[in-house]
Specification:
The chain has 233 residues and is α+β, with helices and mostly antiparallel strands. The chain has 8 helices and 8 strands. β7 and β8 form a beta hairpin. The relative contact order is 0.09.
Length: 233
């Protein structure tokens, strides 16, 4: 840790700016300042600590509000004079109870709010549409299946056939269950991504396009689960 702290370039006040980013959607949540003690405390506890320039004291984010920031990654820039904390934000990052401090926009000569105030620990994500990522991955898997390049993990799965692929789907399903039992949100996301990836490998093996599942979900939308099951029998 000391080597890392000594690498950082604090300004003449002994401070370094910290950009805070949401782990789940890369939204910029806030900009804060930290001294060496705050960075050290952040690393030791796993929760974001900063230095208040107005109060001239160390503080833990969420110490009074409960809106803590669990550290997932700590990045630093090429000049080693700016930090980025990638965090699992609980509730609002801003003291105004907005998810992000950047909730206002200058737009065509006027200032407008672009995000609502959130209640309690509710989490509101403004995710971009990523609807084509399944197709991109699927197309790449089809290519891997056809060319079977050396040193390719998916090529190895395709070479070994159905049993190996199905075993991986089962293993990743178990990992999602364990992550959910442990109530670790970031781990649930990580393991679910693994599961979806291996389901796409299975789809590529069977030459089923991922859109087939989306179509099935669309077909079921608005239909009661009980009715859907009964009509399949």
């Amino acid at each position: 840790m000391e080597n890392f702290l000594n690498m950082l370039k604090f300004d003449n006040r002994g401070l370094i700016p910290v950009i805070v980013v949401d782990f789940y959607n890369n939204e910029v949540l806030m900009l804060a300042w930290a001294n060496k003690e705050a960075v050290k405390k952040t690393i030791e506890t796993g929760f974001a600590h900063y230095f208040s320039r107005s109060r001239q004291k160390l503080w833990k984010k969420g110490e009074t509000s409960g809106h803590t920031q669990k550290i997932k990654r700590i990045l630093f820039d090429c000049d080693e004079d700016t930090l980025m904390y990638v965090v699992e934000q609980k509730g609002a990052a801003c003291h105004t109870n907005h998810r992000s401090c950047f909730f206002r926009e200058y737009y065509r000569g006027s200032i407008r709010e672009i995000a609502p105030v959130i209640e309690g620990d509710d989490i509101i994500y403004d995710l971009e549409e990523k609807h084509d990522i399944l197709r991109k991955i699927y197309n790449l898997l089809l290519e891997r299946k056809q060319t079977l390049p050396q040193n390719s993990y998916t090529a190895t799965l395709f070479k070994t056939g159905d049993d190996k692929i199905l075993k991986k789907v089962a293993e990743e399903t178990a990992e999602v269950i364990i992550a959910a039992k442990n109530n670790e949100k970031s781990e649930i996301v990580y393991e679910a991504a693994d599961l979806i990836f291996h389901l796409l490998v299975l789809f590529a093996q069977k030459e089923l396009p991922p859109e087939a599942v989306l179509e099935e979900l669309s077909r079921r939308f608005g239909i009661s689960g009980k009715f859907e099951k009964e009509t399949r029998q």
